[in-house]
Design goal:
The protein has 210 residues and is an alpha+beta fold. The protein folds into two domains: 98 residues, no CATH class; 65 residues. Helix content is 39%, strand content 19%. It has six helices and twelve strands. Strands 1-8 form a two-stranded antiparallel ribbon. The protein has a two-stranded antiparallel ribbon with strand order 2-5. Helix 3 runs antiparallel to helix 5 and helix 3 runs parallel beside helix 6. It is extended. Pfam families: RVT_1.
Amino acid sequence: MTMTETEAHIICIRGQTTDTFMITQGLKQGDGVASALFNIVLEYDIKWLRVSGNNKFTNKSTQLAAYADHINIMSRTKNAAEETYVEMKKSAEVIGPAINTNKTELLIQTRSNRPAQQQHFIYDIEHENRFTYFGMDLVANNKEKLEINRKLMLANEAYFCMGHIFKSRGSHRKRKLRVYKTIIRLVVSYGCETWVITQKPASALCVFER
């Protein structure tokens, strides 16, 4: 989301309001107060929605996960995601921010053998089959095989970068174990809580561990 419109704004904290101030050129990255003002506006925008980020996703059809300057809408159905997006866009129009559709992506995940419909989301948001989110590759078929293979490849690269430590006879065994546990193994295990591992990926992980 981006604050672009020229409007008068007031900040209200615990019932106390500031004087009116103008935002004439949006909020530029690197500005000292950009992040603070943006977070205030973003929180106000989310409060307009009927979706709460505090409840567990298992008990709701839609949940929001906000971080920095973007929001992740997680829904069980495409219609639920579309309704939440429309509500967010309407509430944002009241106070000024605009959703950047060029940086907004839609990923429909399913374990069904039938491919997801290749259609555009509302307001021409593009449908993606794969993208990276917080260092994890998310794919449409919702299978972890590609992600595990990618993590193993990155871990092998990290191992070879640290090869001089593991091959050195002057390095103590405890030091090598510390490097392995704090650097190399974490490359593989990052995000593993969400994996549903089958026998083949499990065998690949065991081979890497050995």
